[in-house]
Amino acid sequence: MSRASSSPIPLYLQIADSLRDRIARGVWQQGEIIPTLEQIADEFDVARVTARQAVQLLMSEGALTPQRGRGTFVSATAPTLKPVQVVTTLAALVEMYQATTQQLLTVEENRRRPPITTADGVLAEHYVHMKRVHSSDGLPYCVISLYLEDKIFSMSPDRFREELAIPTLVELSPRSIAKARQTLTIGSADAETARLLRVPTDSPVARVQRVFNDLENVVIYYADVVYRGDAVKVEMDLGSLPVKNSS
Predict the structure, then answer these.
(1) Model pLDDT for residues 196-217, shown as the tens digit of each residue
(2) Is the per-residue pLDDT at 95 higher than 90?
(3) Which helix (H) or strand (E) holds 104?
(4) CATH code where residue 29 lies
(5) pTM for this structure?
(6) Helices (runs of H) and strands (runs of E) counted in the chain
(7) What does the buried/exposed string (b/e) look like for 7-28 if buried means 16 or more CB atoms within 10 Å of the residue's CB?
(8) Coiled-coil region(s) at which residues (predicted)?
(9) Beta strand pairing call for 127-136 and 139-149
């Protein structure tokens, strides 16, 4: 299995990411010996020194432990995320947020207008912008840049700063939401997002853009949410094919 040499990410980081994923998925169990450096180098078609760098990185993270004369063993099971279900209604979205325990870290707050298009609606005069990291059990799973119309934010600034924005918005001003929609796309993490999510740069991510409008089509809430690729679950009921009568 050859690694993509054209990637801007160093080879040893690419390999470390693959090895880390094996631990997270349980392919390599805690207490199990991993392949030798020579075997890893052969598998990824790299030099032995590159394989060593990847393994040493996981050692520094505490995921692997060398034992003299025996080899290198999996010392800890990588933390796993409970997947976030992609829902398709506002009610289900509120219910999902209310049913989860999350830690919020605000990394930026300022006055800024959302980067909307004319198709999204009409801009209000002022917005409050907050950039946050959402974590579950101490593990970050999404970075969100959200914009709230200033009039709504001023209803309860402390709550909007300390609690999840959507359930708070629905509770404080439910009639303000005349229309709500979201778009899901797949991409890769930039350097800043990767740092906040603790994943390698260019790791797969799911990007969700949400727009809420009032009766006058004014955008009262806009959010750009970037989820770790391993934190998203999309499940759809496709139904069944009609059974043909063979008689």
Answers:
(1) 887 777 778 899 999 999 999 9
(2) no
(3) strand 103-111
(4) 1.10.10.10
(5) 0.68
(6) 8, 10
(7) eeeebbbbbbbebbeebbeeeb
(8) none
(9) antiparallel
Q: Do 57 and 110 fall into the same domain? A: no
What whole-number distance in Å separates Cα of residue 241 and Cα of residue 22? 37
Distance (Å, rounded) from C-alpha 38 to C-alpha 213?
Answer: 58
Contacts of 206 (CB under 8 A, 6+ apart): 86, 184, 185, 186, 187, 226, 227, 229, 231, 232
Find the helix or strand (DSSP H, E) in which 226 lies: strand 219-228
Tell me the DSSP string of 163-217: S-HHHHHHHH-GGG-SEEEEEEEEEE--HHHHHHHTS-TT-EEEEEEEEEE-TT-
Which residue range(s) make up the domain with 38?
A: 11-74
Pairing of strands 84-85, 232-233: parallel
Pull the structure tokens for residue 137. 């059990």
Indicate the residue among 31, 50, 74 that finishes a domain. Answer: 74
Distance of CA 42 to CAs 28, 54, 59, 147, Å? 18, 14, 20, 49
User: Measured between alpha carbons, how far is 168 from 152 in angstroms, rounded to an integer?
Assistant: 10
Beta bridge partners of 223: 146, 210
